[in-house]
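Complex 172.
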Amino acid sequence: MKVYEYDNSTSDQREDHDSGVVVSETALNQIGVLAHHFDSVDDVNALAAERGYKNRDEITVSPSALGELYEEKVKNFFHEHLHEDEEIRYILDGEGFFDVRSKDDRWVRIRLSKGDLIILPAGIYHRFTTDKNNYVKAMRLFREEPKWTPLNRGPQVDENAYRKAYVESLPI
Ligand code: KMT
Ligand code: NI
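Predicted structure with 4-(methylsulfanyl)-2-oxobutanoic acid bound:
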């Protein structure tokens, strides 16, 4: 896992966009993002038991898995949004980027590869993209029913109860 400030260039989202400014794990934790690296799925199972993630499935994001829908999916994943539940992903193969908003609204890019697990809190604005290799396979974990409806950023979603609770949870 590598974490850094996004360079804000408008070139292809699948490039690294590494500004060279490193973001610490502590800084990630302060915005409610938890990161782990687990080489064994036993460790994933332990975390799932501890946090009550009872359910899981797997998704492959690649042109061969998604066919002609691939480009559209990748574009949609990159739309800035939030969820009313945690987003938990364990990378089984390949690589991808999650971008999350810092407290002062800058993009922080998290490069995930095999064995990395990330937990995004409910209410955080974020987006996802594959990298230049166009291939990631991930386990999606969830507590009850997945509530993955993306709520795209806008004035109405800024007032969403989960968004407001998240913003209030941030340290000053
Ligand atoms: C999501 O919700 O953004 C995804 O599931 C992306 C693929 S999982 C790495
Ligand atoms: Ni999401």
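Residues 81, 83, 87, 126, 150 surround nickel (II) ion (ligand 2) (CB under 6 Å).
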